[in-house]
Amino acid sequence: MMTKEKIKDAIYTRRYIYNFHYHLIWVTKYRNQTFTTEVLANEMKAILQQVADDNDKKYTETNKKPHKGAQ
């Protein structure tokens, strides 16, 4: 009998296989700039990493995209 290859980082139960990935997007009111300095952006990354660590999750990346009207 052939066995299927296991999915990396998946959670296996008797009837289901779970493999969740989340993509979080924050948009401020009127799309005002929030992370205006690298210090603020780095603090948010540190907070997200701490939350992930506290919950035994993996934090992969943060992308800060400039507002279309930003210079």
Automatic annotation (TrEMBL):
Biological processes per GO annotation: DNA transposition
Matches recorded under Gene3D superfamilies: Transposase IS200-like
Transmembrane segments: none
Residue ranges of every copy of the Transposase IS200-like domain listed in the record: 17-64
Recorded GO MF terms: DNA binding; transposase activity
Domain of life: Bacteria
Protein name as catalogued: Transposase IS200-like domain-containing protein
Annotated organism of origin: Limosilactobacillus fermentum (Lactobacillus fermentum)
Classification of source organism: Bacteria, Bacillati, Bacillota, Bacilli, Lactobacillales
